[in-house]
Amino acid sequence: MSFLRNLSSAVLLLAGAAVFSAESRIAVIDLERVFREYYKSRIAEDVIRQQATAYRTYLARLNEELRKLGEAARTAQSNALNIALAPAEKQKVEQEAIAARNAVREKEAEIKLFVEERSADMRRLENTKRAQIMTEIRREVAKRASAEGFEFVIDSSGKTMNDQPALLVYPERCDITNSVLRELNRSRSQPEKKNNGENRK
User: Fold this and answer.
1) Which residues are CB-contacts of 80 (< 8 A; sequence separation ≥ 6)?
2) What is the rounded CA–CA span in Å between residue 45 and residue 90?
3) Which DSSP category does 19 fall into?
4) CATH numbers and ranges of domains, the chain
5) Which terminus of the chain faces fewer neighbouring Cβ atoms within 10 Å, N or C?
6) For the chain, where are the E strands, in sequence order?
């Protein structure tokens, strides 16, 4: 995800500017993997997908209404061009054609506004969900770093401008990815075990 890449770049720049003492302890975490495998990320994706589906369904209905209005407008315009009509009847069908064209324009404006507003809604929803998840991940990373005595935590999923890993070599013992993921996903596994135990009774 681009937001993770930007975050990674910022962290790495700060890390590069820092002067590490010999006593400094540095941890490494694959932040992209943590975000992807955290169970709440999948829940958030489902919520976003369901909302997008609801919007697409409503948009399809609006487009179908526009299609019918377009057909009615073309029919009305064709009727207005009928030279066999009496003057009074011709004036009536011309007014109907004008009204039909106006209805098409109004529906087009409605669809445009709907798309703009719902697109903004989706961006806000995605940003909100992402921010909530990242807050929880950062909280757990900070807790893990404090518990294990790490002063710095660097994201190993960061990429350079050449799309290569920014962090090439590091001791495996410094990688806290699995421990952070395990703790984050613990709240999902515990209720499942509890429910399974209740079912066996």
Assistant:
1) 90, 93, 94, 96, 97
2) 56
3) -
4) 2-200 (3.30.910.20)
5) C
6) 26-29, 152-155
Q: Work out whether strand 26-29 and strand 152-155 pair parallel, antiparallel, or are unpaired.
A: parallel
Residue 150 burial (CB < 10 Å; 0-12/13-18/19+)? buried
**pLDDT at residue 195 tops 70:** no
* Other Cβ atoms closer than 10 A to 34: 25
pLDDT bucket at 192, cuts 50 / 70 / 90: very low
Report pLDDT digits (tens) over 52-82. 999 999 999 999 999 999 999 999 998 888 8
Q: Per-residue pLDDT tens for 159-171?
A: 778 777 777 777 7
SS3 85: coil
